[in-house]
Amino acid sequence: MGDVRSEVREFLSSRRARITPEMAGLPAYGGNRRVPGLRREEVAMLSGVSVDYYVRLERGNLAGASESVLDSLANTLQLDDAEREHLYDLARAAGPERRRRTSPAGSLRPAVQQVLDAIDSPAWVRNGRFDVIAMNTLGRALYSPMIEDSRGPLNTARFAYLNPKAREFFRDYDKVLNDCAAMLRMEAGRTPHDPDFIRLIGELSTQSEVFRERWASQDVKQHRNGRKRLHHPVVGDLDLDYEAMELPGDPGFRLNVYTAPAGTPTADSLVLLASWAATREHQTTTPRGAAASS
After folding, report:
1. pLDDT digits (tens, 9 = 90+) for 113-163
2. Bridge-partner residues for 134, per DSSP?
3. Interacting residues of 200 by C-beta distance below 8 A, sequence separation 6+
C-alpha cells in the first residue's frame, strides 16, 4: 500500500484481463491468445488513444489523464459505477495535490453524537478504514459481540477477518468478507498514503490468507444501502435494511442506520434488543448499592 502506481497497474490490468474480444465487440480470429482478455493495443484502439500512451497509463502514470480519456477507458473496460469512481480516485491520487491526504481524525463534532442518540434504530459512524468512531445505545447492543471481544479500537474489518466469532455473527459471512475487502480497496484510491490505513492492510494481509486472496482480486464496491443478515446472541436472527450516508459536515465519515419493516419478526426483535440494551445500560451506570438504599 501507499504506491499509487502499483495500485493503478494492478487495477487496470485486472480489469483488462476480464474483457474478452467478444465482450468488446471485436472479431475473434481463433488461435491461442497470450493474454486472457484484451491486449493493450486493443484497449488503446477502443479507447481512442495511442498504444504508447495506454501502456504508460497501465504502468501507473495516470497523473494528468483527462476526464475524456478516463471516460473512454472506463467504457472500454466496461467498468461499473464503483470501478469508475475508483479509477477517478486513483487518477486524483496520482497528482501532487493528493499526495498527503489521509483519513479523517478519529473524532466527531458533539452534534453528530446527538444525532445518533436521537435515532431510534441501531446507528453508528465509521471512517473509510472501518474504524467505529461513535455509536448509539442500540448500535452498541447490535454489535455487542464485536465490542465485548475487542482488544483495541473497534474496527469491523479486523473483526470480520480475524475474529472467529464473526462467522457466527454474520450470517452471510463470505459476502461480508468480499464486500469488506472491496470497500477497503475503494478507500485505497481515496487515501493511499494514510499510514493508519496502510497499517490495517498490512495487519490483515499478514494474518489472514482469505483477506490476501480477496484483496488481490482488485474488486471494488460502494457502500450505500442493502441487507444485513446477523445472528445476535440475545435476540437471534435479524434481517436488517441498512442505509450508509456520507456526513457532509464531516468528510470521510459515514453514518450507518439499520431498520426493519414494521410488523416483521426483525422489527419485534429490535424492540427486544432495545429493552435488553436499556437494562444493560442501567446496570452499567447504576452505582453498586444504589438499588438497596433507595
Report:
1. 999 999 999 999 999 999 999 999 999 999 999 998 777 789 999 999 999
2. 125
3. 129, 130, 155, 157, 158, 184
Q: Smallest Cα–Cα separation from 253: which of 187, 185, 168?
A: 187
Cell of 157: 474489518
The answer to whether residue 24 scores a pLDDT higher than 50 is yes
Evaluate whether 255 touches 136 at the Cβ level (below 8 Å): no
- In DSSP terms, which residues pair with 217 in a beta bridge? none
Signed CA dihedral, 89, 90, 92, 96: sign only: positive
Residues near 63 by Cβ (< 8 Å), separated by ≥ 6?
A: 91, 94, 95, 96
Kindly state the cell numbers that stand for 145. 459481540
Count Cβ atoms below 10 Å from residue 55 Cβ, excluding itself: 15
The pLDDT score that the predictor gives to residue 292 is 40
DSSP string for 88-105: HHHHHHTSGGGTT--PPP
Residues 38, 44: Cα–Cα separation, whole Å: 10
Least Cα distance to 182 among 213, 144, 155, 141 occurs for: 213
Question: Average pLDDT for residues 43-52, to the nearest whole number?
Answer: 96
Q: What is the DSSP string of 134-202?
A: EE-HHHHHHTHHHHHT-SSS-BHHHHHHH-THHHHHBTTHHHHHHHHHHHHHHHHHH-TT-HHHHHHHH
Q: Is the pTM of this model over 0.70?
A: yes
What does the alpha-carbon distance between residue 262 and residue 88 come to, in Å, rounded to a whole number?
A: 40
Tell me the pLDDT tens digit for each residue of 155-175: 999 999 999 999 999 999 999
Distance, first Cα to last Cα, the chain: 58
Q: How far apart are CA 85 and CA 206, in angstroms?
A: 28
pLDDT of residue 35: 73
